[in-house]
Amino acid sequence: MRQLQKEYGIYFILGDFVGAYTVGSSANWNAGTDYTDPEQKARMLAVVKAMVLDHKDEPYVLMWLLGNENQHPHTHTNANEQPEAYAKFLNEAAKMIHALDPDHPVAVGNLNTSGLKEIALYAPEIDIYGANVYSGAYSMGSLWQLVRRHFDRPVVLMEMGADAYATEEGPDEDAQAEYFRQNWEDIRLNMAGNRGEGNAIGGVLFEWM
User: Crossing angle of helices 38-55/83-100, nearest 10°?
Assistant: First the structure.
């Protein structure tokens, strides 16, 4: 990562699942991560702390990211059933990161706008609202407006885009490229100074293959 940053100016979003797929929580797979469990929370905070201490002084760090669609059932957590507890845990983790590293922002990696209102209420330490969004080629729907209304933070699309659609002739990379282009246009429309909501600051392609 140091070489990529030095030679090509590439920066990295460093993240932790904070319990998604039971990573860090050591929870039972079937039961899933429980954000009301003090022991599981302590284990996850320890993992996040180690990540931050390992990388915080490196030149390649762009921001920290907490979670990855934790509200989705396939991630084996109770974030969807306990959105307040999850939001409070995010706040605790973000507050810890700020104390360890005041120089880089902390983002959440959310599933679209799931749990947005709880995060707005109970996680003020979150600096950036990150979301995985697959609303379509033309727009991200009401994402920008909802975040602006409920949680006035800049927005990064942590996942967006489409695979190269398979056709009888093989993958259609032109269609994929056009899909991505339209996603970028929606981001640009909602950046500061343009006619959208003014809270978009970027996006991450998922995936270009």
Answer: 30
CB of 19 closer than 8 Å to CB of 70: yes
- Which distant-in-sequence residues (6+ apart) come within 8 Å of 18 by Cβ? 24, 44, 48, 66, 67, 70, 89, 90, 93
Query: pLDDT (tens digit, 9 = 90+) per residue, 61-114?
Result: 999 999 999 999 999 999 999 999 999 999 999 999 999 999 999 999 999 999
Answering whether pTM is above 0.85, one says yes
Helix (H) or strand (E) holding 112: none
Q: Rounded to the nearest 5°, which phi and psi values hold at 124?
A: -65, -15
Question: Phi and psi at residue 160, in whole multiples of 5°?
Answer: -160, 160
DSSP one-letter code for 33: B
Determine the Cα–Cα distance for residues 61 and 44; give it in Å rounded to an integer. 21
